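Holo model, DGJ. Inputs:
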Amino acid sequence: MPIHYNQTAQEFHLQTGQTSYIFTVLKNNQLGHLYYGKKIRHRDDFSRMLLIDSRSNTTSVFEGELEFSLELIKQEYPSYGTTDFRDPAFQITQENGSRISGFEYHNHKVVKGKPLIHPMPAAYAEEEDAVTLEVILRDPVTHVELILSYSVFEQENVITRHVRFINRGDESICINRAMSLSVDFPDADYEMVQLSGSWARERHVEARQLRTGVQSISSARGISGAQHNPFLALKRPETTEQQGEVYGFSFVYSGNFLAQAEVDHYDVTRVIMGLNPFDFRWVLESGEEFQTPEVVMVRSDDGLNGMSQIFHRLFQNHLVRGFWKDKERPVLMNNWEGTYFDFNEEKILQMAEAAKKVGVELFVLDDGWFGKRDDDTTSLGDWFVDKEKLPNGITGLAEKVNDLGLDFGLWFEPEMISKISRLYDEHPDWLLQVPDRRLSHGRHQFILDFSRREVVDYIFSMMAEILREAPITYVKWDMNRAMTEIGSLALPHDRQQETAHRYVMGVYDLYDRLTSEFPRVLFESCASGGCRFDPGMLYYAPQTWTSDNTDAVERLKIQYGTSMVYPLSTMGAHVSEVPNHQVNRVTSLKTRANVAYFGMFGYELDITTMTQEELDCISSQVAFYKENRGLVQRGTFYRIESPFEGNVTSWNIVSKDQAEVLVGRYLTLARANDGYHRLKLKGLDETRLYRIEGYRDAFYGDELMNAGLLVENYLPVQGDFESLVLKLIQVKE
Ligand code: DGJ
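Output:
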């Protein structure tokens, strides 16, 4: 049983295959946290884990005694104002102005599987995959009910959490803060790992030693953002990629968030994660309910790779859905970097024809096909075809592309509006805006108010019309700016701070409607590349365009960092032109593909200008990828050498049955008279014999993992940006 309840001691013990999570009802009937860590055997009393002592230098809950202060107790879902002074998990304001709450244990229930938290994205489970505990707490003063949900994925070693507030009182309340998770760890000997960066430099791995006080990352951009991913890990200082203790937290949400570790004066570390309380305020009328998005918690003793592999399995098996979940993804050609806005039907068909010849399966028409969009100043919102560029419409073009033997995909930026557009002329009030203020733009564009149902309805009808008519099998859903002047003309003044969250819910609603009506369309989410790469998006779109930065060297860091949380099956990775459009670097076609192979592969260049030699090279790359994409999508990924630590990056993927291995090894800058390099592979079966494809050499797994491969045997001359990809297959002795 993964969930135990100790009736007498009023304790809950949640067990996954390798972890235990224990909490209890405290003397004041609120919940106290006892333990989150390596699995321990169940006992019917864990009360010794709770230290309640008396200190006269603090405040105490009950008059006449000093022994019970929340400041001294680890808590499960803490509030501010009743003897705990750390940042709380939630805060509610009553009509009388009081900000004090007291949620007391009422009852609990355990259900098989995991109830959907629709209309929110969340991990899903069959009845046999998870068990869910709902603990119901009530505030006797406001009659608000608080439900803490914990779903235990025993086999996957995951616990997910989220929270619901139900206003069962007569008065309205205001939720100022509603975290999805709070965990108090008993010590502070951790490094906080985060994925931070910027546009074109997304998800770089950073780690810092925890210090007393608050350390946090967040987004107030309306999207999860490239600056910080909604993820945080605590690892021991000695934990490496391959071994050591680590806790990981990932927020299944695509908007503003806060992820924070606060170390208090007793070296207790409180991790909280959830909707960013900054600029958030939600009015909950009597009878209404508010639910938070979900946090996925994992723990591993097998280092950062161990943590990542748990996230990868969960996201692949219990977050990504639909037709494309396990299906091999098509090798695509996207015209963006090849043409930008400057194309017509003839040009696209030439590109598609050349792409077909090298084995590409899907042609994607990017930005510029609609309205009068010859640059980025106009037409967003006008989702009807530009007949000057495409006289036969999208349907005509798509059919011609189909006739060439390719599937057809199309770009949209559904959440946006240009002021130069018919849509703006008709609905100037449909922009996110506040009264009497100038509106800031991003890339000349403005954001549609997706908190309004009629706006989402309209965009749905425009997109659905095209998708119903044309044979489209793939949609790239872009989103190219952060939010400013956040407000909705449709919401009353006291609900303006609900706008950003309502907007995200509108985005999910549109995704939901489109994926329901067009279940066979592969959606790839994108936000100026990887500015909204989060688990919320993956619930609807199985893959995300990882970054606008397609330089092979820069991509090493981006893909390495992204893999901390996200499986390779979610990461769009393309070979593009050189000199590279983002950093002007020239890398070989081989190295560009060697990096892009470790993602959902494609090309983003003008193939019609390539030499025969280059086309032949691309043909063999496409063939190689097709042979190995199952391994890339479903294998277990191991990071080996980090681009953040040195000149060499390496990684390998191992198939589930450990019979096949794909290895990537990359050198950033060449060094004269360098020493020899051994690449120690990970995750192989020690006892099996593996042969390297294209070579006669065969090695046992133990030799490959401990002595390693001598790199120079396979790559004798190493220049700048040199790379090596090897495929190993198990052979009979
Ligand atoms: C940003 C995306 O990341 C690019 O791939 C491309 O689709 C452009 N937008 C088009 O405007």
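The two ends are 43 Å apart (CA to CA). The mean pLDDT is 97.
Archived with the compound record.
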